[in-house]
UniProtKB/TrEMBL annotation:
A GO-annotated cellular component: Golgi membrane
Keywords annotated in UniProt: Glycoprotein, Membrane, Signal-anchor, Transferase, Transmembrane, Transmembrane helix
Record: active site: E87
Main location: membrane
Protein species of origin: Vitrella brassicaformis
Listed name of the protein: Galactosylgalactosylxylosylprotein 3-beta-glucuronosyltransferase
Amino acid sequence: NAYDIRILDELRKVRNVGTWPVGLTAGPRVAQYCDVNSTTGKIKKYNAWGGHRPYTIDTAGFGVHVRHFLRDPPVLWNPKSRKAYSESDFLGQTNVSKWD
């Protein structure tokens, strides 16, 4: 993956789980959460490949605060995840709703 250097500024703002658009994914040209409530900041609608997955997001499209790796047990990637479900399995361990 290639990233714009400005993404580092966005990563520093992540307090739990943060998301951003990803270009040139497996399906559509851009995968992103596309409608956010301006009052609450919560996601209302999203556009991503594989809508059947619990978290329809590409690995390149999210960041997780370091505290998730420091807790006991830590958030870990599952090498036995089904195809296309590694992101959902990983994010599911954070106990963050996809609508938060």
